[in-house]
Design goal:
Oligomer: single chain
Mean pLDDT: 82
Number of helices: 3
Order of helices and strands: HHH
Radius of gyration: 31 Å
Number of strands: 0
Largest sheet: none
Low-confidence stretches: none
Strand content: under 5%
Helix content: over 70%
């Protein structure tokens, strides 16, 4: 037995749906921004540009914080949406499901790009460590004691002649 929704209930459900959809769109936009930052960061890792990598990392942290804040709002909205979903027209519901699918795909892309960057960074760090090790081996002063580190002979007895 289906219950007819009052105009107020329907308006409330549509308002929840619109707010939920808007939050999902914001989250999608943040994930797209995050993906662009990660892709740009990959190029900077290739170029071994430490300053740019640090700047990208700071930007990345800000985006992740924004995503976490959005997620805190989306989770309760998701619960409200699931509660009211049966009373929402199918056409309105389809756009939210499409957004959620897009978000899931974006999350997978972000994770894949993040993994590529991590592996590339590890590889570059390994090469730098090897180069530093080789520099130590090729140092012509390696193994020699410094003239500054040796203790100079200093007299310890004073003799007075009268």
């Amino acid at each position: 037995m289906t219950k007819e929704l009052s105009k107020e209930e329907l308006d409330e459900r549509i308002a929840i749906l619109k707010r939920f959809r808007k939050l999902l769109e914001q989250q999608r936009n943040k994930f797209q921004e995050y993906l662009m930052v990660l892709e740009s960061q990959e190029g900077k890792i290739e170029l071994e540009d430490g300053d740019s990598i640090a700047a990208h990392t700071q930007l990345e942290n800000q985006i992740v914080e924004n995503l976490a804040s959005l997620q805190k709002v989306i989770v309760p909205m998701q619960g409200m949406y699931n509660t009211i979903m049966p009373g929402i027209p199918v056409t309105e519901n389809a756009s939210v499901e499409e957004l959620q699918n897009n978000l899931a795909n974006l999350q997978k892309q972000v994770l894949a790009q993040n993994e590529r960057n991590r592996l590339l960074l590890q590889s570059k760090m390994g090469k730098i460590k090897t180069q530093l090790g080789n520099m130590n081996i090729m140092n012509p002063y390696r193994g020699r004691t410094s003239i500054y580190s040796e203790k100079a002979a200093v007299g310890s007895v004073i003799e007075f002649n009268a």
